[in-house]
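new request in #modeling-help
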Amino acid sequence: MSNPLHAAHYADSARQCRVAIAENVQVARDTYRVRLHCEEIAGRILPGQFVMVRLSGCNDPLLGRPLAVYDVVPDAAGHALDLIYHVKGRFTTRLARCERGQPLDLWGPLGNGFPVLPCTHLVMVAGGVGQTPFLTLAKEHLGRQQFGAPPRSVVPVPRVTLCFGAQSHEFMAGIADFEAQGVDVRLATEDGSAGQRGLVTELLEQILAAAPSTGSATALRVVCCGPEAMMRTAAQIAARYQVPCLVSLETPMACGIGICFTCVAKIRQKSGWDYKRTCVEGPVFDARDVCW
Amino acid sequence: MTNLPAQNSDLDLRVRLGRLELANPILVASGTFGYAREMEHLVDLRSLGAVIPKTVTAEPRCGNPPWRTVETASGLLNSIGLDNDGIEAFVAHHLPYLRETGTRVIVSIAGRNPEEYVQLAARLESAGGVDGLELNVSCPNVAGGIDFGTDPDQCGKLVAAVRRACSLPLLAKLTPNVTRIAVVAQAAAQGGADAVSVINTLLGMAVDWRRRRPVLGNVLGGLSGPAIKPVALRCVYQVAQAVAVPVVGIGGIATIDDVLEFLVAGASAVQIGTANYYDPTVSQRLVAALPAALAEAGVRRVVDLVGTLNTDN
């Protein structure tokens, strides 16, 4: 792409589809997983990419909401798409009440997603429902499943760790899904109900401090998704240990396809910074490029 | 009106906005379609009556701080703040792409003063490949922007100044945030506008009472979406009664029924705005739905529907 004003990741492989909910189940407190049979999107989505989801024919709530892909599972037509959402606003409250058969409008896959991360130890740092984009990333990097069309090749990574933090154990969705893939799962909760009492970023610090000399640039890679304060701290810790760190930003979005200029984040430029659209330039950014 | 069964082959979707002829009346509104490249794989750009890319200004603008939009009941408040890379970057990088799309391109411009509008218009005319200009005299999110649209005298003079400097067809995009929009529309028409675009967003705000903070970074924003459709229809109706130039209807249009309501109320064409955000392929589906809608209305030409509202008791 030679045009300097064009973003790197337009919705060039996106499709807009109307699909019925196949399954909508609670997986943790205030947290649900919705399954959609949609080969057009599921067959092409990459870890870290997202879809926009909207209640069909409904003007209130009006806009679609961005949801990261949680899993891609085989179904009769190819693949189904699993999305995880935390109930906190008008849309997710409505979605949680939807039953099998309710039509949803979706468009995707959207955004850049995670690149292939060659390393010896991939450390995924998640807060709240920030674990959502990491299950597919872990499966891919452990050699369990390929994603994208054509399927993306990844040299398996020997070790993948999920540092997962939440207010309390009851909010933590999908721990067993990660463990089933062979991910080393470490928990931190604010109330001490699971894992270490404290913040998830303390788990990251412990891992990096214990790692053998991180002089080799490809030894460790950190990816991070969750509340902004948590990502900022994780980025600072990774920088201190000179470990490359990617963050998946969760800026509010209206369209998800680059046309509304809502979801901008301050991204460092050669000189100073510029607002960049998270949906078509991200949501995954090098942590060093984000002006927190 | 007789209900003649219309054959698709007989249908005439063309509309005329002054000196500008369009293949059909479905346009996409400035600020809701990026620079068209974003939508290349979702929408057949050639199917649209025209594309109006995001407003361009003389200098680059980084736009307003987040939050820039917030959803309200059946609507969207925005305060993007004309985030754009400036006219020279637009001419160098966006315009070449837009020219190649094979659809009509109407460029939306906004200046801080009449001189800037004139400079922008002259630059775009000399750049070539632009089918028309839409003067954004109604952006509520930048200081000064709305002034030209609220004062009929200033609005008329501004349109006239651009008219003298540039031979491209001109649309003036008007704000509903006035007592009498028809008076502003008359001034724009007298200034030489080929058409008037009605309406831009309604000034509004959202408050987070728990934090005692406005939700938008810029405090105030412009309301769009289905929530404003009745206001937009009223404005189109009033303006169409008051001016001889064509009216382009904008405001909450998302379905083929919406499109026909605006045509009947007096719009010669419509722009799809916020609906592009929540239904990305809507514009091309509306073009595809027009023939059946014309058949249902018993007309063969879009122009035969324009302003056919019967208000007799």
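bot summary: Chain A has two domains: 13-110, 121-248.
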